[in-house]
């Protein structure tokens, strides 16, 4: 009886607006524009067989935002920033967990040996690793891989051929600020004025088009004056020509 009451309550008090959301809106609400890419990614997510998609393009496009949205919306998901990730760490996670969606930011930064492991999973559906004394462990899995890349030429030819490539253009200031507004309201409940100020300041004062810089600032902000101070500190101590993606 308690179970039935719970079901009826969930129906009565559920948000009707949320029920009306399309898959694209559900998964990618904070991404500005790209309705066709949102639709394609949504279809890929719910497909019965694994689909692998590579988002390419210059720094300061929505590549990373797409991955962050999937990380936030999907279960059985693992996110990897290939710049600082280790192959053994990724392998350990995949062997120990039932991962369905693997999200790799900047996959072009992965070592060739790690790229080869991914290729094998994509081709055979088997995760395989050879350890010391020629001991091999294997795991059969269905793995959907969604990745981003600034420089696709650094990927091995066979691995790249396994992906459906989608090229994204650089966004403009207005789009960047709108992404910041949506993302920071959802993740950190920041009001519109502060969120827009962070986006504007990162773009114009830090000279960065990296949405991750927006998130770093947002985590420490409580007031508008905090934004000014944090931007000043970042500019004072940040390395010249730091990485922008």
What is the number of strand segments?
Answer: 7
Query: Which CATH first-tier class of the largest domain would you pick?
Result: Alpha Beta
**Major sheet: arrangement of strands:** 2-3-6-1-7
Q: Which outline best applies?
A: globular
CATH homology superfamily name of the largest domain: P-loop containing nucleotide triphosphate hydrolases
- Summed up, the domain count is 2
Low-confidence stretches: 1-18
The succession of helices and strands, N to C, reads HHHHEHEHEHEEEHEHHHH
Largest sheet: 5 strands, parallel
Radius of gyration: 20 Å
What's the mean pLDDT score? 85
Q: Class by helix and strand content?
A: alpha/beta
Tell me the CATH architecture of the largest domain.
3-Layer(aba) Sandwich
Percent helix? 40-55%
Number of helices: 12
Strand proportion, as a percent range, falls in 5-15%
What is the CATH fold-level name of the largest domain?
Rossmann fold
How far is the N terminus from the C terminus?
Answer: 53 Å
Strands, helices and their partners?
Layout: H1 2-13, H2 16-19, H3 23-28, H4 35-45, E1 53-56, H5 63-73, E2 77-81, H6 87-96, E3 101-105, H7 112-124, E4 126-130, E5 136-140, E6 144-149, H8 157-161, E7 164-167, H9 173-188, H10 192-204, H11 211-218, H12 224-237
Parallel strand pairs: 1-6, 1-7, 2-3, 3-6
Antiparallel strand pairs: 4-5
Helix pairs in contact: 9-10, 9-11, 10-11, 10-12
